[in-house]
Write a structure and sequence with these properties.
It is found in: Nucleus. This protein is an all-alpha fold. It has 27 helices and two strands.
Length: about 650
């Protein structure tokens, strides 16, 4: 047997071992500085004797050491092995750190705390992305999984699992365990945790926050039936809910004349927290309380927040709270029923104001309000709340009868339905005048007198439908109803001017009541201008609106309060009601738009040439001012535009996110 030469042995050895991987060690400049090209496969004993080492895939001992029963068979680690092991360990540690960072970031987001700065390792990894080889298949699959919906690994079974599913989505959840399909849990904060909010960050002083909290607690909360803020101190409120704290202080600053600058800060914080919570699944009662009071008072956010709150509340099963409160008689269920009632009331308010469909369409969700009042946990404030629930049910039926405004006359046969709802409203005010409490420790005699105010507003809403599609003379069969609409509108302004409890309550009542007051004023102005003495004299309308302006000016309220924004627009209305107001405004418009042409063209010539030059805010021409009733609530008038300059100035500071 001939011996193999060294070169042959070397070739066989190299052929039996797979070619080593070439790993480049790169610097920050991404230029290769060294290559490690050899993997050590032979044990130390075979390398010492310079003989071929046959090592199994399982590792030492090799065949020779095993045959000779040597115990010191080992493979020394080369530089490549050390680098590989350290790289795997570093990657595992970075992955664990990233998971911990993500978990902490999510918890801080749920608690409303500021976001953490990005990890330094993340920045380094971004710089190395171009030089790192493609991830292994398992890593790629793991990254792809992160884009999919999160699932419950070991979901808790409920008694529903033993029965047939009563909702189709339960079957899909059983099969997929997707968390997005089940009702979310509550996001309660840790009471022992340090408070970290816009107050602790110094955006507003603690003294201002305490003062605004007292304004809301001691004055404003009574207008929302004392369910907006159940906490006695600001510290309790801040620990329980950051978004409720921001909403409470925003509403208080809106009404406080000394908090105009603070209002912008609070409003921005409320918007930030609301936007941040839009896609989060957790929500407790305080979260819905915050959205409810914001929808109740903040006219520029009400439409967006109301719709979002209703859907999220239904997701958390708050829409079934009426039956739960009656059955379980628990304080939690009763509190949820009150919150759902406010959401329902706000939904109906907005449907009336904007002439849009309400989101809550099911009658059974609120029809058992008598059962709520019979619950032992019911209070006097619940009497007030449920009176509004019943009233909104009547107005909802009225809205369903007439439908959206299409510019067409209502049928004459609707007179019988109008009479039916007229009787329902009479029964409503008679019943609740006796049942409602005479006074309230914070809002005086508003409970009963506020019900009378709501009664006049509901009558105006009902009767004003007869003006739909009327361009000239009102048909004789609608004259009585039209006269009742005018009487109701006049009574609305009179009661605000003459009743001391309602006069002072203007700074505190929800935006819906102020919007309907604007509707009543515009209604009287347009009726007197269009129909003259047949329905309402122009001097009467001018007198009432002028007195209303004077009263608004005498009130102490914030700069962005809706009544304050209405003043300038109402003054424009009064100028149009004067004998020469219309003509003067048209002549001024001509002078500003057509300089040098006043002597060559008459007013009639200019108007006939281009009548669109004199269109007003509601799309009607200034000379006739109104040929169709383009006003709110059922005619699409937006009371926010009564003060154009003030409104635009406020929107420049606080952008409106609504698509109204």
């Amino acid at each position: 047997m001939s011996k193999r030469n060294g070169s042959t042995a070397t070739q066989e050895y190299e052929g039996s071992v797979p070619p080593p991987k070439r790993v480049a060690i790169t610097s920050n400049s991404e230029h290769p500085v060294a290559h490690i090209s050899r993997h050590i496969r032979a044990c130390t004993t075979c390398r010492k004797h310079k003989i071929k080492c046959f090592m199994d895939d399982a590792g030492p001992p090799c065949r020779r050491c095993k045959e000779k029963k040597l115990s010191n068979c080992a493979v020394s680690k080369n530089l490549q092995t050390i680098i590989d092991e350290k790289t795997e360990l570093s990657e595992a540690m970075l992955s664990d750190l990233d998971q911990v960072y993500t978990a902490v970031k999510e918890m801080r987001s749920i608690m409303g705390l500021p976001e953490l700065p990005p990890l330094q390792t993340s920045r380094m990894n971004k710089r190395k992305d171009s030089s790192v080889p493609p991830p292994q298949e398992s890593t790629a699959l793991q990254l792809e999984d992160n884009y999919g919906p999160s699932c419950d690994n070991s979901p808790k079974l409920t008694p529903e699992d033993d029965r047939l599913p009563h909702a189709p989505i339960h079957s899909l959840y059983t099969l997929t365990r997707m968390r997005a399909l089940r009702s979310p849990g509550s996001g309660n904060e840790n009471p022992s945790q340090a408070i970290n909010d816009f107050i602790s960050q110094g955006q507003i002083s603690l003294a201002d926050a305490e003062r605004l909290f007292c304004v809301y607690r001691d004055r404003l909360d009574g207008f929302i039936y004392s369910i907006g803020c159940p906490y006695k101190t600001l510290e309790q409120l801040r620990r329980k809910s950051s978004i409720l704290c921001a909403a409470t202080l925003t509403i208080a600053a809106l009404h406080d004349p000394a908090a105009d600058k603070v209002y912008g800060i609070c409003n921005s914080e409320l918007r930030r927290l609301t936007e941040k919570s839009m896609l989060q699944r957790q929500g407790d009662r305080d979260y819905f309380r915050a959205l409810s009071i914001a929808s109740y008072w903040l006219s520029d956010l009400s439409w967006t927040l109301s719709g979002h709150a209703i859907r999220r509340a239904a997701e958390c099963n708050i829409h079934n709270s009426y039956s739960l409160a009656i059955k379980d008689k628990s304080e939690e269920a009763m509190d949820s029923a009150r919150i759902w009632s406010i959401l329902y009331i706000c939904d109906q308010h907005l449907a009336i104001l904007y002439d849009r469909p309400a989101i809550i369409q099911d009658d059974w969700l609120t029809q058992d309000w008598e059962g709520i009042l019979n619950c032992p946990l019911a209070t006097d404030q619940d009497e007030r709340l449920m009176s509004q629930v019943e009233l909104m049910g009547i107005l909802r039926n009225i809205r369903r009868l007439f439908g959206p405004d299409k510019g067409e006359e209502i049928p004459r046969l609707y007179l019988s339905q109008i009479g039916h709802y007229h009787r329902q409203l009479d029964q409503w005010i008679t019943k609740w005048t006796d049942r409602l409490p005479e006074g309230h420790p914070n809002i005086g005699a508003f409970p009963r007198k506020g019900a009378l105010f709501h009664f006049h507003l509901a009558q105006l809403y009902l009767y004003s439908h007869v003006f739909r599609g009327q361009s000239n003379q009102i048909p004789s069969h609608f004259l009585d109803t039209a006269s009742m609409a005018v009487t109701s509108a006049s009574a609305i302004i009179d009661i605000l001017l003459t009743d001391p409890d309602l006069s002072t309550s203007i700074v505190g009542i929800p935006s819906y009541l102020l919007s309907m007051t604007a509707f009543a004023a515009m209604f009287l102005a347009k009726v007197s201008h269009k129909y003259g003495d047949n329905l309402f004299r122009r001097d009467q309308a001018l007198d009432q609106i002028t007195r209303l302006i004077s009263h608004f000016r005498s009130l102490s309220m914030g700069k962005w309060h809706l009544a304050n924004l209405m003043i300038r627009g109402l003054e424009t209305v009064t100028s149009l009601l004067t004998s020469h107001g219309v003509q003067d405004k048209v002549q001024n418009a001509i002078s500003s738009m057509m300089p040098g042409n006043e002597a060559n063209q008459s007013l009639e010539d200019v108007y006939n040439t281009n009548p669109d030059m004199f269109t007003g805010m509601d799309g009607t021409t200034i000379p006739t001012w109104d040929t169709t009733f383009g006003l709110s609530p059922i005619f699409g008038f937006d009371p926010s535009f009564l003060d154009v300059d003030g409104y635009m100035q406020s929107m420049a500071i606080f952008p409106n996110t609504e698509g109204t």
